[in-house]
């Protein structure tokens, strides 16, 4: 890679550094020469030092620095003494409303003034310069490569890597399980998913000693049919310990009280598996609230079109047709929770969901019933 | 104390001598001080990411003093009245505490979030600059790949970061991540159970994301940033073609004092902008979202912008589920979520190798290309940009639908069709624009500049006078070679009619007071 050393810098003679007559700049230029740098253009920004324009520029820069210091001081003062404690509904007239904006304004402008000061200094006061440096691209010299090659060869030879293949093989053989041993502790994270996708809080055997699970609202109140008027809907949870918390992420259910005509259509459309267990109670239907796409709550109920919409990815489900997906990326209906009303007049679940609610997962059994109309 | 004013130079010399005695610095320090950097505004985009990262480390350290990544259930009784008495996780409670009851806590939180957004945005823009100018070509493929890895580290660092407060919005994001994880063939449910310590959401995911967010990923990013910058140093920065610039030199200014001063100024500028934004513009008001509950979500649930394209793709993908009865299911989210993300990682990683293979160009390139000079690459890049933008828009299609009164389903269909059709159109249009720009460059080099002066010849024909850029031959043509850099397209680029006034507040029409002096400059060849 010497073909490109055609620049003028080869002609620049090295200077004798012991020469006492050398100026500072000549010594400096010798440094540049040694780094393969050539000055193309270099002149002071202000050829005559101390002119009016130069003084003015200096004043501007120092003014910016002083402003920066002033704003930094204001920031510290505001940080300490500006009333900041949040006290409920503050209006714009209360000083604490302005605490964060004041911090941003003062610190921001302090930094900006300093930045502009430094930049002005660099752009308006430093010498005008253009230099060119050799790139020395493309690997080391042939000598260096040759020496490095021989060095590596000597190391390989000293260790006998070629002469003692058995040693190498046994070392590799040991290294494989050692590498495995290094990552094996991560196995502590592995947990059997078990029935986490298929069993929900509505499972009587697992969570309620075999008794049917009641239906409650978030505050724990059990739900009666007269609590939802026709056309209305509420979100309900299994009436078990922590039933309304995130411990039962697939349990939330949207209990809808359909109007008579809508309920009639739904009864006509109902999948056989739901007909078999008599999943509706009167005009009430309970759909899993967890979207079958990736699990957001499909909670926007549009009464006019009888659609449930999931706001995350806009999957839409037809309420009067088993909540089958009608638009968007979801592929399966929202499972219906079979419900009834017990002797005390409260809703309860007849059983858990018949198919796993929530998003699909790799080993989700695809039941033929789901596709049935 | 007796030291006189004039001896400060010798003090510096003495300190330098003491240092050099110990660390032998004189040689390497000179090389560093003298190093030449090429100058162009577009070379500073990556710096924005670096400076944002520094601010992220600083503000993040402050947040870590007050944030508690615990999923223990507590009842809120802090200063924010609307949530008093609500059950929530300790993580959410401590974020509320940080926002309302820590002096300057909200300011720091907002600074951290804005810096994270700027970090990702500047990486993206920096990446586009590198791509469209061909700066990723040999010998810099390694650094391109490191950059891509850092983008994805930043992507997950950001996603994990805004998931930590365990608020209503971020919990929804984790819910979607769980759905994506569970869709992976064979390992899906097991991977999900490992990630969430059993069933989603569980109580272990926030502490796990916390240690990744504050330790593992920042450490990796720090290490990679060091290598990234070191490689730029060792391999020397690329430069634009131009007079005196070759593949074998660097034309520019010295590291000290010029480059360093501009960098320090630029860094403080970025800090200043972020500090002002942190104070003046609200971001991620988690107190409005409430704690995460699996049964609650609102519309307009958008992730941060760099995740939006992925969410958009998930929204657009049709409901195609592959069922292998009776045991297996491949949900639709697998394709955009897992395959889409995998391709977004792999394709950019491999692009330099692919381009090498298809163009059979194995040389080293230290001079950049103007996008127009490589229409194929530029058009491919624009295809990806358009694809990405449609993804981002679709990631917020519910908001667009609401604000512009468009049907939501129409937005989805427009996105689906656009995703397939628009990139193809973009490829064609970009290609034609590149060729057109190339042609115009060659035209000016051959025939000269359009002067805007219309002439009429004796036959009555009108023609425009062209100013040749060099001595023309008998046909009025000039044989100038295109050298890959800007060709002057206007007369004032070659010295005619320069702006009389550079002032910001004065009109150009106003006769300049120093018109005479600027005229002198033209004649002495400075313009």
Automatic annotation (TrEMBL), chain A:
Listed InterPro entries: QcrA_N, Rieske_2Fe-2S, Rieske_2Fe-2S_sf, Rieske_Fe-S_prot
Keywords: 2Fe-2S, Cell membrane, Disulfide bond, Electron transport, Iron, Iron-sulfur, Membrane, Metal-binding, Oxidoreductase, Respiratory chain, Transmembrane, Transmembrane helix, Transport
Domain Rieske: 282-348
One family name in Pfam for this protein: QcrA_N
GO annotation, cellular component aspect: plasma membrane
GO terms for MF: 2 iron, 2 sulfur cluster binding; metal ion binding; monooxygenase activity; oxidoreductase activity, acting on paired donors, with incorporation or reduction of molecular oxygen
Keyword match Cell inner membrane: no
Superkingdom of origin organism: Bacteria
Membrane association type: Multi-pass membrane protein
Subcellular location(s) of the protein: Cell membrane
Membrane-spanning parts: 60-82, 102-122, 166-190
Similarity remark: Belongs to the Rieske iron-sulfur protein family.
Cited function: Iron-sulfur subunit of the cytochrome bc1 complex, an essential component of the respiratory electron transport chain required for ATP synthesis. The bc1 complex catalyzes the oxidation of menaquinol and the reduction of cytochrome c in the respiratory chain. The bc1 complex operates through a Q-cycle mechanism that couples electron transfer to generation of the proton gradient that drives ATP synthesis.
Entry protein name: Cytochrome bc1 complex Rieske iron-sulfur subunit
Organism name: Glycomyces artemisiae
UniProtKB/TrEMBL annotation, chain B:
Membrane topology qualifier: Multi-pass membrane protein
This protein's record includes keyword Membrane: yes
UniProt-annotated stretches for the region Disordered: 497-527
One GO MF term attached to the UniProt entry: metal ion binding
Transmembrane regions: 43-67, 114-132, 144-164, 210-234, 264-283, 333-354, 375-393, 413-431
Any one cellular-component term (Gene Ontology): plasma membrane
Cytochrome b/b6 N-terminal region profile domain mapped to chain residues: 15-241
Subcellular location: Cell membrane
Keywords, comma-separated and alphabetical: Cell membrane, Electron transport, Heme, Iron, Membrane, Metal-binding, Respiratory chain, Translocase, Transmembrane, Transmembrane helix, Transport
Listed EC numbers: 7.1.1.8
Cofactor field: heme
Reaction catalysis annotation: a quinol + 2 Fe(III)-[cytochrome c](out) = a quinone + 2 Fe(II)-[cytochrome c](out) + 2 H(+)(out)
UniProt feature, compositional bias: Basic and acidic residues: 518-527
Gene Ontology biological process terms in this record: respiratory electron transport chain
Protein name, entry field: Cytochrome bc1 complex cytochrome b subunit
Organism in which the protein naturally occurs: Glycomyces artemisiae
């Amino acid at each position: 890679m010497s073909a490109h050393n055609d620049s003028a810098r080869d002609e620049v003679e090295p200077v004798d550094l012991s020469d006492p007559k050398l100026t500072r700049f000549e010594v400096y230029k010798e440094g540049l020469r040694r780094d393969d740098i050539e000055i193309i253009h270099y002149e002071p920004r202000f050829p005559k030092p101390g002119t009016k324009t130069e003084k003015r520029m200096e004043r501007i820069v120092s003014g910016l620095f002083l402003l920066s210091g002033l704003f930094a001081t204001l920031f510290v003062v505001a940080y300490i003494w500006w009333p900041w404690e949040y006290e409920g509904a503050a209006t714009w007239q209360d000083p604490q409303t302005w605490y964060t904006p004041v911090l941003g304004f003062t610190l921001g402008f302090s930094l900006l003034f300093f930045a502009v000061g430094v930049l002005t200094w660099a752009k308006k006061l430093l010498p005008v310069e253009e230099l060119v440096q050799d790139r020395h691209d493309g690997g080391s010299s042939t000598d260096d490569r040759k020496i490095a090659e021989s060095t590596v060869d000597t190391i390989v030879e000293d260790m006998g890597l070629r002469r003692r293949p058995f040693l190498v093989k046994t070392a590799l053989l040991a290294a494989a399980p050692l590498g495995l041993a290094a990552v094996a502790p991560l196995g502590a994270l592995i947990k059997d998913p078990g029935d986490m996708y298929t069993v929900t809080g509505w499972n009587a055997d697992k969570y309620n000693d075999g008794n049917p699970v009641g239906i409650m609202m978030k505050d724990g109140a059990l739900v009666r049919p007269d609590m939802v008027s026709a056309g209305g809907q509420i979100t309900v949870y299994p009436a078990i310990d922590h039933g309304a918390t995130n411990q039962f992420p697939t349990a939330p259910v949207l209990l809808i009280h359909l109007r008579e005509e809508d309920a009639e259509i739904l009864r006509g459309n109902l999948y056989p598996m739901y007909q078999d267990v008599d999943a509706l109670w009167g005009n009430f239907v309970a759909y899993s609230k967890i979207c079958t796409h990736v699990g957001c709550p499909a909670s926007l109920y549009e009464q006019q079109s009888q659609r449930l919409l999931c706001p995350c990815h806009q999957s839409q489900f037809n309420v009067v047709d088993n909540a089958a997906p009608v638009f968007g990326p979801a592929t399966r209906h929202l499972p219906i929770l079979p419900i009834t009303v017990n002797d005390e007049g409260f809703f309860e679940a007849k059983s858990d969901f018949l198919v796993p609610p929530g998003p699909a997962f790799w080993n989700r059994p695809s039941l033929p019933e789901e596709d049935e109309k | 104390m007796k030291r006189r004013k004039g001896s400060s130079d010798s003090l510096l010399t003495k300190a330098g001598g003491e240092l050099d005695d110990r660390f032998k610095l004189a040689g390497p320090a000179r090389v560093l001080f003298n190093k030449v950097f090429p100058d162009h505004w577009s070379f500073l985009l990556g710096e924005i990411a670096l400076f944002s990262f520094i601010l992220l480390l600083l503000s993040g350290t402050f947040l870590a003093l007050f944030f508690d990544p615990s999923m223990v259930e507590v009842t809120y009784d802090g200063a924010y009245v609307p949530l008093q008495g609500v059950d929530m996780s300790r993580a959410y409670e401590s974020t509320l505490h940080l926002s309302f009851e820590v002096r300057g806590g909200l300011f720091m939180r907002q600074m951290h979030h804005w810096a994270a957004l700027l970090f990702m945005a500047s990486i993206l823009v920096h990446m586009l600059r590198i791509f469209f100018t061909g700066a990723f070509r040999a010998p810099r493929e390694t650094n391109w790949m490191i950059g891509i890895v850092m983008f994805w580290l930043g992507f997950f660092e950001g996603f994990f970061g805004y998931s930590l407060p365990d608020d209503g919005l971020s919990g929804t994001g984790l819910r979607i991540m769980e759905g994506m994880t569970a869709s992976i063939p064979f390992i899906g449910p097991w991977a999900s159970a490992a990630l969430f310590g059993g069933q989603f959401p569980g109580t272990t995911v926030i502490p796990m994301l916390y240690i990744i967010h504050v330790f593992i990923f920042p450490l990796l990013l720090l290490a990679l940033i060091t290598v990234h910058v070191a490689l730029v140093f060792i391999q020397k920065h690329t430069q634009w073609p131009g007079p005196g610039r070759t593949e074998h030199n660097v034309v520019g200014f010295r590291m000290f004092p010029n480059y360093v001063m501009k960098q320090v100024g630029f860094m403080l500028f970025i800090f200043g902008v972020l500090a002002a934004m942190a104070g003046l513009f609200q971001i991620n008001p988690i107190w409005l979202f409430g704690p995460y509950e699996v049964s609650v979500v609102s519309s307009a649930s958008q992730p941060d912008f760099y995740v939006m394209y992925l969410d958009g793709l998930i929204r657009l993908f049709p409901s195609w589920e592959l069922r292998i009865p009776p045991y297996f299911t491949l949900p639709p989210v697998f394709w955009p979520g897992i395959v889409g993300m995998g391709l977004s990682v792999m394709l950019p990683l491999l692009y330099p190798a692919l381009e090498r293979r298809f163009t059979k160009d194995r040389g080293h390139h230290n001079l950049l290309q103007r996008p127009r000079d490589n229409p194929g690459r530029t058009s491919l890049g624009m295809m990806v940009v358009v694809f990405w933008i449609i993804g981002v828009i679709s990631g917020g299609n519910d908001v667009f639908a609401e604000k512009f009164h468009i049907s939501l389903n129409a937005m989805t269909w427009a996105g689906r069709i656009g995703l397939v059709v628009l990139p193809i159109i973009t490829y064609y249009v970009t290609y034609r624009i590149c060729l057109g720009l190339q042609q115009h460059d060659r035209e000016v080099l051959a025939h000269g500049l359009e002067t805007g002066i219309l002439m009429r010849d004796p036959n009555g024909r009108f023609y425009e006078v062209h100013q040749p850029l060099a001595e023309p031959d008998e046909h009025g043509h000039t044989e100038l070679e295109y050298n890959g850099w800007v060709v002057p397209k206007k007369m004032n680029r070659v010295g005619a009619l320069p702006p009389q006034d550079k002032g910001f507040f004065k009109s150009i029409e106003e006769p300049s007071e120093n018109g005479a002096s600027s005229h002198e400059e033209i004649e002495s060849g400075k313009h």
